[in-house]
Design brief:
single chain; 434 residues; alpha+beta; BirA Bifunctional Protein, domain 2; Rossmann fold; 2 domains; 8-stranded mixed sheet; 5-stranded mixed sheet; 16 helices; 16 strands
Length: 434
């Protein structure tokens, strides 16, 4: 190879980045399990036909190839379609409603950009087998709790319903077949603005009066209840839109009862979400601190799993984009900033003291303290420099004098303090200092 490098749009994550990423996963997992969600893992490779016909315009981004058996397979595009397969394949082993979470990589033939990669990691949480608005509200409450636990400032979740957008299209004089084009055009609102979306609608064949009405309706904003009231008045002739608005009302009533602050969400008629399998609630969460796009999103997809299971199975879920969360947190300085997993570094004073240092390191590890052991003997200055470069806070020295007295020297590289402790107290001191 002329140059050693990774594939564009696929990143290496060195230790400091991985420590933050692991913190994100552990935090979100802890919140999901607090809500009673259970773990699931599926293969990264699926039969291509499983993914095809489920993703609308995004299907062109699927990585497809023939394996050594000439089977047409594809890399996982997301974790939603594999979930649908699992529910159909293991129907007799799952008790519905089923709350599941899953974490792992997915692949899309994207044009790489800030916060958008060809290999990316997602943490999904879904409730399978319930059409209740309580399920929708619980998913939104979970994401709010998770982002607060991660320390995100000022995030807002925009809520909408696919049938609200459909109702906007229908009451503007468009037939059902044109609604899909309205979804795609409205989905570009934040990127293109009013004029850009108007151009898209006109290009689709929407007349200027209908385009103006659509744009007026999707820009309604304000207090969630006030937005719903105005939409109910203006979409009163469309029964499906009226039912969708009633569903959104039930969701925000539940969010209030679940303790989600009204400042954390709003009703956004312009929100469409690009994936074609959404059928009901759709949502995206954003923060003004990250103008490059939403942090995460999701919604209700009541028909996708039924395509595999042969019967209707209502489902709602979300996907945390770990790469985007990591990039935002790194940029904003959120979360822990460790440079190593180790808390303590045990030096080796000299060859004849190796056994004592090994025993000390073993005792600390057995007691729950992450411990690095020097692989060199003597030259304590060099060992101290290694500990410092790695970011280990505490260095322990066990020399001949300390061995005679049954003590250990404990040096805090961050604060500069140094003290001698009885060997029997070192573990407790390090556990207390963590």
């Amino acid at each position: 190879m002329a140059k050693v490098q990774n594939i564009k749009g696929m990143r290496d994550h060195l230790p400091q980045a991985m420590l933050l990423r692991q913190h994100i996963v552990a935090t979100v997992q802890r919140v999901a399990e607090r809500y009673g969600f259970e773990p699931l893992q599926t293969p990264v490779v699926e039969y291509a036909e499983l993914l095809e016909g489920k993703l609308g315009d995004d299907e062109k981004l699927i990585y497809r190839f023939a394996d050594h058996g000439d089977r047409n397979v594809a890399l996982r595009y997301d974790q939603t379609v594999p979930l649908a397969r699992v529910v159909a394949q293991y129907a007799g082993q799952l008790t519905l409603p089923w709350r599941r979470y899953a974490y792992g990589p997915s692949y899309r033939g994207e044009r790489p950009a800030r916060g958008r990669y060809r290999e990316f990691y997602q943490f999904d949480a879904d409730i399978v087998g319930s059409s209740s608005p309580l399920a929708d509200a619980e998913i939104v409450a979970l994401l709010s709790d998770a982002l607060e636990a991660l320390g995100f400032p000022g995030f807002t979740t925009m809520l909408n319903h696919r049938q609200v957008i459909g109702g906007i299209a229908r009451t503007s004089g468009l037939d059902e077949t044109a609604a899909g084009g309205v979804y795609r055009a409205i989905d570009k609102f934040d990127k293109l603005g009013v004029d850009g979306v108007n151009t898209e609608l006109v290009r689709m064949g929407v007349n200027s009066a209908a385009a103006d009405q659509i744009l007026a309706l999707v820009q309604i904003d304000g207090d969630p209840n006030a937005v719903l009231t105005e939409l109910e008045a203006r979409l009163a002739a469309d029964t499906r839109a009226v039912a969708a608005l009633a569903n959104l009302r039930a969701i925000i009533v539940a969010l209030d009862a679940m303790g989600v602050s009204p400042s954390r969400y709003r009703i956004a008629p312009r929100l469409a979400r690009g994936l074609s399998y959404y059928t009901g609630l759709v949502f995206e969460t954003s923060t003004p601190h990250w103008p490059a796009g939403s942090l995460l999103g999701g919604g209700r997809y009541d028909e996708l799993i039924g395509q595999f299971a042969g019967r209707p199975i209502p489902t709602v879920g979300l996907a945390f984009g770990l790469d985007r969360l990591h990039d935002v947190m790194a940029e904003l300085g959120l979360g822990p900033r460790p440079t190593t997993t180790a808390v303590a570094f045990v030096t080796i004073f000299g060859p004849e003291h190796t056994a004592a240092s090994l025993a000390l390191a073993r005792a600390l590890r057995a007691g729950g303290v992450n411990t690095l052991l020097s692989l060199e003997t003597g030259a304590l200055g060099k060992q101290f420099k290694e500990a410092d470069r790695k970011g280990v806070r505490y260095v322990l020295v066990l020399g001949p004098d300390e061995l005679t007295r049954g003590e250990v020297v404990l040096k805090d590289l961050r604060g500069g303090d140094q003290r001698s402790l009885p060997q029997a107290e070192v573990l407790a001191a390090l556990l207390a200092a963590r």
